[in-house]
Design brief:
This protein is an alpha+beta fold and 61 residues long. The protein has one domain. Helices cover 61% and strands 13% of the residues. A two-stranded antiparallel sheet has the order 1-2.
């Protein structure tokens, strides 16, 4: 489902989630739950400004 949503193959999504899991950035529970343990590290990996993203999310509410 996540791969379809972002336009990536299931294989790529699984590999990426596994790598992020090994780094302690996130974990998965079952097939539908992703838990982010280190949002700052995830933002750094993604190359985004976490403070800006939080402001945008709050403003959208």
């Amino acid at each position: 489902v996540l791969g379809d949503f972002v336009g990536l193959s299931a294989v790529h999504v699984c590999r990426t989630l596994r790598r992020l899991g090994r780094r302690g950035v996130l974990s998965t529970e079952g097939h539908m739950t992703v838990v982010i343990h280190d949002a700052g590290a995830l933002a750094d990996i993604a190359g985004i400004d976490l403070a800006y993203l939080r402001r945008e999310i709050i403003a959208a509410r």
